[in-house]
Design a protein that fits this description.
Blueprint (H helix, E strand, L loop, with lengths): L1 H25 L9 H15 L2 H20 L6 H21 L1 H5 L7 H14 L2 H15 L7 H26 L6 H68 L5 H11 L6 E8 L1 E2 L3 H12 L6 E3 L5 E3 L5 E2 L4 E3 L22 H7 L3 E2 L3 E2 L8 E10 L10 H12 L2 E9 L2 H10 L4 E7 L6 E4 L10 E8 L2 E9 L10 H83 L5 H28 L7 E4 H14 L7 E6 L6 E4 L1 H19 L3 E10 L4 E10 L12 H9 L2 H7 L1 H12 L3 E6 L5 E11 L2 H15 L1
Parallel strand pairs: 16-18
Antiparallel strand pairs: 1-6, 1-10, 2-5, 3-4, 7-9, 8-9, 9-10, 11-12, 11-14, 13-14, 15-17, 17-21, 18-19, 19-21, 20-21
Helix pairs in contact: 1-2, 1-3, 2-3, 2-4, 2-8, 4-7, 6-8, 6-15, 7-8, 8-9, 8-15, 9-10, 9-15, 15-16, 16-21, 17-18, 18-21, 20-21
Length: 788
């Protein structure tokens, strides 16, 4: 028993792994839910033919499957996911076996179209609900999402499981030959089903590629849009700094009022710039005078301070020069920063010497601003402002060059913009809420600093990373689809292909199998009809045998007294008694003997004891002899017949001469009785069917239909004549019944008709063969020998 189960376990395990990996590879996007439906259909089919063995294989190789999915496809097939998947596969297999047990056990799933319909309905749409329901839980665990709709996941899994079951299980049963179909029929159904399955797979695969390409295009569009908007916002901040720097560079002295008006004009509402600041260069010698003058200009206490590492501020220590924040717009909520020496900024945040050396805008690392009560992360964008060169037209060239160098090298101060991008990022996130999620970090240093957002799930989503340079800083934007693929809204084309392709494939497979089922139905009906015909034939043979036995017994019983009567008549004749009564008795005995012979011929023909011969004979000589016998017969006194032979009739034919003669005798007797004439014309014609197979026609009609009224059929007689059937005529005329039987024995038929003149005709046909030259020579030689 173990020797039988071990190969089945190995085969089931190989098929299970192949279907699982194939489903993950073929179905895009790759997800853990993809293998549940097809593998459940596979195990259902194997369970129907092998029992519990495939379930053991599933339990044994599922850990190996989990490792393979993680290694090759980078899917997190954890314990909970695999447990639910294995339970769903086993449950669907057991439920399928329970649903179709009667169909498989009694081998009736393909015996009729009705049985096939209910069989397909149970193994496909009904059983597949198990795997389709279980993947909803697996999808939530795999995608790390507990909200949203997973209806597409349900329909997609239900579709794949149903298609796999509808195409695989019938093929498996046909291979097993449970219904004992012929090899040709099984090959036809299998080949057609495989071609149909491949066509549907190609259609669905093409649709998947189109959907994923469209999805990728939408994601790339959102990614490009996010990058463009971020760079545009940063450029807007830098443009504000450059505008303010141009003001100080163009004017020798800028008042606070002018600074506020200018800043108010360039600082748009909703901008990410929190404040614009001006920090002039103050030499150490001018510190006291600058502080005193600033108190008067700003009308508040002003002193140059510096920032400590702990965030506290103290009076600035002695140094060569200072760059205190002198103008701030707006001052409201930013007053604490007045007088702060920007040279005291930590160098890892923003080195002012780097700003001086670059002569361009420099961005700082994210920091918590002193003046920001909400402690949101912000950034400093700073630019050094140099005194523009002054050129004196009367001075010499050398003097102009020296003056230009001196003036260009003088540093006036720093323009600083305090920027907070949280509002902009939040608006951007709301704008792209239904499309993508993004997480922005400053990765200029060894440790990334968060600017906006947080880490998000990336399973079953398109994910990409954008790195942009923001004025000496590097920003990294991690962007991903907002929702996993199965939760995203699908176009009507995707739904149409999924639903239409599924039902179309099931209908195609059902039509293919219904042809085989219809063939089975026809076979059953043929068997029933054949058995009925056999029984009817046996019954007919029994009746015919009983009839033949009865006629034979009756013939024997009647011939004994008939012989006695015949002997008695002969004795009377020997004694010289030969009067009218004796002659009548003799004729009556002869008629009774002839009737008995006719009855025996009829019985033998019906029972098949008599068969026609295929002897070669002189047909023209036969007709002459027949005509002579008729004219010499006593029964033919007062009557006449004229033989009319067509030129197409050959002299020699192959047939049974004896039964042709009996046929002619019966026809002539019937014609006199039915046509009610004494003068007849017998027309003989030949019709060729094939090279040697021909039909011979005998037509009996009145010799002169218009001679007397007695030879014409009246209207009432004509109607009666046409209304008579063969059975009625047989009952009226024994001779006609014999003619019909003889013509049937010779491969022809007998029928009644009417001429255009209204006269009746009697037709008979027989099948003959034209004699070959060799047969004619042999027959002529026999006749010559007899004459010699």
């Amino acid at each position: 028993m173990m020797q039988l189960h071990l190969p089945r376990i190995i085969i089931s395990a190989i098929l299970y792994l192949a279907v699982c990996f194939g489903a993950i590879w073929l179905i895009n996007p790759q997800s853990l839910v993809n293998f549940v439906g097809p593998s459940a259909a596979l195990i259902s089919g194997l369970l129907l033919i092998w029992g519990i063995t495939p379930l053991i294989a599933v339990l044994l190789v599922s850990p190996l499957l989990a490792v393979g999915l993680g290694y090759y496809f980078h899917l997190d097939a954890n314990l909970s996911v695999m447990t639910i998947a294995v339970l769903a596969i086993i449950l669907q297999g057991c439920w399928t076996k329970q649903l179709v047990y009667r169909f498989i056990h009694y081998k009736e799933w393909l015996t009729s179209r009705k049985q096939l319909f209910f069989f397909i309905l149970r193994i496909g749409p009904i059983a597949s609900l198990v795997s389709a329901s279980s993947v909803l839980v697996i999808a939530m665990l795999d995608n790390q999402v507990m909200t949203g709709t997973f209806f597409y996941t349900f329909v997609n899994t239900w579709s794949t499981s149903m298609l796999a079951a509808v195409f695989f299980i019938p093929l498996l049963l046909l291979i097993k030959n449970a219904e004992r179909f012929k090899l040709t029929k099984r090959l036809f159904v299998s080949f057609t089903s495989i071609l149909g399955g491949l066509a549907i797979l190609l259609l669905l695969k093409t649709s998947q590629h189109e959907q994923q390409d469209y999805r990728q295009a939408l994601f790339n569009q959102s990614k490009t849009e996010v990058e463009r908007l971020v760079l545009a916002e940063v450029d807007d901040v830098v443009n504000n700094i450059n505008s303010l720097a141009a003001l100080f560079k163009a004017r020798e002295k800028v008042s606070l009022t002018e600074f506020n008006l200018f800043s108010e004009g360039i600082l748009e509402q909703g901008s990410s710039v929190r404040a614009l600041e001006w920090a002039p260069i103050v030499p150490f010698a001018d510190r006291a005078g600058f502080e005193q003058e600033s108190r008067k200009a700003l009308k508040k206490d002003f002193a140059i301070i510096e920032l400590l590492a702990n965030g506290n501020t103290i009076p600035a220590q002695s140094r060569t020069q200072y760059a205190p924040l002198y103008y701030i717009y707006p001052q409201y909520n930013n007053q604490e920063a007045l007088g702060l020496d920007v040279y005291s900024n930590p160098t890892h945040i923003l080195s002012m010497q780097v700003v001086v050396n670059s002569k361009a805008v420099i961005a700082s690392a994210p920091i918590t601003l002193v003046q920001d009560e909400l402690a949101k992360p912000g950034m400093l964008f700073s630019k050094a402002v140099f005194l523009p060169p002054e050129v004196n037209e009367l001075a010499s060239n050398e003097a102009q060059q020296k003056l230009s160098i001196i003036k260009e090298g003088k540093l006036l101060g720093f323009v600083v913009a305090v920027a907070q991008f949280d509002s902009f990022f939040e608006q951007l996130a709301q704008q792209k809420e239904q499309e993508v999620s993004f997480f922005i970090q400053d990765v200029s240093g060894s440790q990334p600093l968060s600017l906006f957002g947080q880490a998000f799930p990336t399973v079953n989503r398109h994910v990409d990373t954008i790195t942009i340079e923001v004025f000496s800083r590097l920003w990294q934007i991690d962007i991903a689809e907002k929702q996993p693929w199965f939760s995203q809204a699908k176009s009507w084309q995707a739904w149409a292909v999924l639903i239409g392709g599924t039902f179309g494939a099931v209908l195609f497979q059902m039509l293919v199998l219904m042809m085989a089922a219809y063939s089975s139905e026809l076979g059953q009906q043929v068997d029933i009809k054949t058995r009925a015909l056999i029984l009817a034939k046996e019954s007919s043979e029994q009746k015919s045998l009983a009839k033949s036995n009865f006629l034979q017994s009756l013939n024997k019983e009647l011939r004994v007294p008939l012989l006695a009567v015949k002997a008695f008549v002969e004795q009377l004749k020997k004694k010289g008694i030969n009067n009218k009564q004796v002659t009548g008795i003799s004729h009556a005995g002869s008629n009774v003997a002839l009737l008995l012979d006719t009855m025996m011929d009829l019985s033998n023909i019906e029972s098949g004891k008599i068969t026609a011969k295929e002897d070669c004979f002189d047909f023209y000589g036969f007709l002459q002899r027949t005509e002579s016998l008729l004219k010499a017969s006593n029964a033919y006194e007062g009557k006449s017949i004229f033989f009319l032979i067509d030129e197409s009739v050959p002299h020699y034919l192959n047939s049974d001469e004896l039964y042709i003669q009996k046929l002619l005798n019966a026809l002539i007797e019937s014609a006199h009785h039915l046509l009610k004439v004494d003068s007849l014309r017998l027309s003989v014609k030949l019709h060729k069917h094939k090279l040697a197979d021909t039909s011979l026609f005998f037509t009996l009609s009145p010799l002169n239909p218009a001679s007397t009224n007695s030879t014409n059929l009246t209207n009432s007689n004509e109607q009666t004549f046409h209304a008579q059937s063969h059975d009625d005529l047989t009952a009226d005329s024994t001779a006609l019944a014999m003619a019909i039987k003889y013509s049937q024995l010779l491969g022809g038929d007998t029928s009644l008709g009417a001429l255009s003149s209204g006269a009746g005709v009697l037709n008979a046909s027989i099948r003959v063969t034209i004699s070959s030259s060799e047969q004619q020579e042999i027959q002529q030689g026999l006749i010559f020998d007899l004459m010699s």
